Amino acid sequence: MALADSTRGLPNGGGGGGGSGSSSSSAEPPLFPDIVELNVGGQVYVTRRCTVVSVPDSLLWRMFTQQQPQELARDSKGRFFLDRDGFLFRYILDYLRDLQLVLPDYFPERSRLQREAEYFELPELVRRLGAPQQPGPGPPPSRHWEFSG
């Protein structure tokens, strides 16, 4: 379970780099937990805080570094709530993990994902999504069924 990983001190668990709060007293507890639970449009995501704040000056970076936890909207279970497209957020989160854009071969939601990247203030992702697409296999072939009888 992901929560157990942080207690064992596994890599990427918030130790090491000091994070964005390194200028404050080390005796202060962190404002946000290392593992954050997000409810994005009804889809629940559990990730590390360091992933959410991986792009400086983005909306998520500001939310989780410049604001207090009590200032952010929460759902009835206490998860941080974002009223955005929960399905498309998986691609935003994937991008935040390693700053790579990986989409399925046939992805008709590209312009909607670009709009989400603009909302989250991820300019490099916006640029990549706006770049001309490389030719791919195209949409799956449509099948027409003929019935004789």
Number of helices: 6
Can you count the beta strands?
Answer: 3
Mean pLDDT over all positions: 80
Instruction: Give the amount of beta strand, in percent.
Output: 5-15%
Q: Give the helix level as a range of percent.
A: 25-40%
CATH architecture assignment of one domain: 2-Layer Sandwich
Description of the molecule:
Residues 34-137 form the BTB domain. The chain is of the alpha+beta class. The protein has a domain at 32-130: Potassium Channel Kv1.1, Chain A (2-Layer Sandwich), CATH 3.30.710. It has 6 helices and 3 strands. It has helices at residues 2-7, 49-52, 59-66, 86-98, 110-119, 123-130, and strands at 35-40, 43-48, 80-82. Strands 2-1-3 form a 3-stranded mixed beta sheet. A hairpin with a 2-residue loop joins strand 1 and strand 2. Helix 4 crosses helix 5 (110-119) and helix 5 packs antiparallel against helix 6 (123-130). The longest helix is centred in the middle third of the chain and has 13 residues, at 86-98. The termini are far apart. Residues 1-27 have low confidence and may be disordered.
